[in-house]
Amino acid sequence: MNENKSEFEPKIVAFVCNWCTYAGADLTGTSRLKYATNVEIVRFPCTGRIDFMLLLKAFAGGADGIIVSGCHPNDCHYTSGNFHARRRWIVFRGLLDFLGIDIRRICYSWVSAAEGAKWAELVNQTVANIRELGPYEEYKKATEYLEQEVAHE
User: Fold this and answer.
1) Which residues form the F420-non-reducing hydrogenase iron-sulfur subunit D domain (predicted)?
2) Interval 112-150: pLDDT, tens
3) What's the confidence (pLDDT) of residue 54?
4) DSSP type of residue 111
């Protein structure tokens, strides 16, 4: 095991829907529940609006892990946006596998506006899981390789 893993604090980016998960995260704060501060939240109107290529951009920007979270099935503010997101997630997993990205670095979950404690638990568990996996450096390796190839042309 890498000695630096115990000191490693992962950077997590959370893509969340405004109506459920963001409100749940807000409830976590107003309820004064303690949870890891490693998460940067990016709020969307609906998880159905998340372009999953943004997840790759998050990794490119230095994220070690990602959370995608929205309304529970049949509770979507926009009727079926969370179902669209779930279908795209299933397809996106194949792309991640093809790219060699460990899907354990991405957590897909449902959190309602009333589930502040669940949000805290989700964040804490995701941070612990990513801490165990260590820093995500594969994107850096791919970038360095491409830069070397361009330099040789």
Assistant:
1) 12-134
2) 999 999 999 999 999 999 999 999 998 877 667 667 767
3) 92
4) -
64 vs 57: CA distance, rounded Å: 12
Residue 36 backbone dihedrals phi, psi, to 5 degrees: -60, 145
pLDDT in tens, 19-76: 999 999 999 999 999 999 999 999 999 999 999 889 999 998 999 999 999 999 998 9
Residue 14 identity (one-letter amino acid) = A
Q: Is residue 3 part of a domain?
A: no
Question: What's the CATH number where 63 sits?
Answer: 3.40.50
Q: Which two tokens stand for residue 108?
A: 């897909």
- Contact partners, residue 134, CB within 8 Å, separation at least 6: 2, 4, 5, 8
User: What residue numbers bound the domain in which 119 lies?
Assistant: 10-152
SS3 20: coil
Neighbours of 90 (CB within 10 A): 10
CB-based contacts of 117: which residues, under 8 Å, 6+ apart?
Answer: 28, 31, 33
The answer to whether residue 14 is domain-embedded is yes
